[in-house]
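Task card 7
Instruction: Convert sequence to structure tokens.
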Amino acid sequence: MKSFNYHAPKDVKEASKLASSNSAFLAGGMTSIPSMKLGLATYKDVIDIKKISKLSGIKVSAKSIKIGATTKHADVASSKDVKKAIPALAKLAGNIGDAQVRNRGTIGGSISNNDPSACYPSACMALNAVIHTNERKIDANKFFKGMFETALKKGEIVEAVEFAIPEKADYQKHPNPASRYAIVGVFVAKHKGGVNVAVTGAKSCVYIDKDLSGKLSSDFSSGAIEGMELDDSEMNSDMHASSEYRANLVSLYAKKAVEAC
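Output:
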């Protein structure tokens, strides 16, 4: 690991001022630290934001749950408020990685990294999330741009993620047996205005499957999507699963999610 300057700013404003094209924000460090150790990433400045109190915590209102960016996965998983309002979100958080990852990793770090197999991006898309930064509010469907790419600008910091409370929801994942990342993960959420079926792991970036969402918006039952064949032309194909297998997993886990609602 190459040397770098370590900073521990007292607030978001100071953290943003320290940012440059050769810096990284550090919260849980689940991706940044291993990348630095392996020489896959180098930074002049590492800006530690995990002790900025404004960035952590869970707030529940009648229509939404707002989770601070540095809130750990374990805290989301164990929150009584989250379990009551959106149990599927608590379930998702409780099955990320292993205990060590869940007790260090943060929601803001996960969505900012936007790994194509991460779980949280699917929750953001399915639950019509709004990402609050120090500069603006970004709808989830405009936040995730591509593999490891988001709408965040230089110096922009995710402060919180606000999820709309659905009528029903569930998350189903086919995990990699070693990393627990999603080979395919499907988050189904039924809202008053329709159903969102968000998929992670299947393509280079999280996405809403419009065909599954449309069918379930008309008829919210597993039978409505029975036998549906999905287009696998843009799906990932690797040593873990072929594109055809991933397409089958998306259909399978969408049905499982609906049945679990």
